[in-house]
Specification:
Blueprint: H1 3-52, H2 63-152
């Protein structure tokens, strides 16, 4: 197998890998965005719940109402903490996948540049060969013309 064909196959494999990594990065970003959205929803719910919560001194609430409120806000705070951890972890994962994709894209670009340089070098070699052949043909034609002109003199 020649070098150009091998390089073409390698570029094709790198493109497939880049496309696969792009899918992984996009999926990771969607998961991180979803986790962030869920976190914002929980935080908004917590804020709304605090505004509607029994206030000290506003009016009398029985002990059971206060206990239910505190238990619920405790669970909500725990859910928010868990969601913050998840959102942070998924953001980090998405950033890693995006970095991985960018590195793969650079590797692919390097191979494409190499292929383009090889193709350019091949075109230049072909042009030089063609120019040499044209020069040789012109030289031989000139020589024939001189020889023919001498015979006629």
């Amino acid at each position: 197998m020649n070098r150009n064909r091998t390089l073409e196959l390698l570029i094709d494999l790198q493109r497939r890998d880049r496309d696969r990594r792009a899918g992984v990065a996009a999926r990771a970003r969607r998961e991180a965005d979803t986790a962030g959205s869920t976190l914002r929803m929980l935080e908004g719910y917590r804020s709304d719940y605090d505004q509607r919560a029994p206030k000290r001194g506003a009016r009398a609430f029985d002990t059971r109402t206060v206990q239910v409120h505190e238990a619920f806000t405790g669970k909500l705070d725990q859910a928010i903490g868990d969601q913050q951890t998840l959102a942070r972890r998924l953001d980090e994962t998405a950033a890693l996948r995006e970095t991985d994709l960018a590195e793969q894209q650079r590797r692919l670009k390097a191979l494409e540049t190499l292929a383009e340089r090889r193709a350019q070098a091949a075109r230049l070699r072909a042009q030089r060969i063609e120019q040499r052949q044209t020069d040789e043909f012109a030289s031989q034609a000139h020589l024939r013309a001189r020889t023919k002109a001498r015979r006629h003199d």
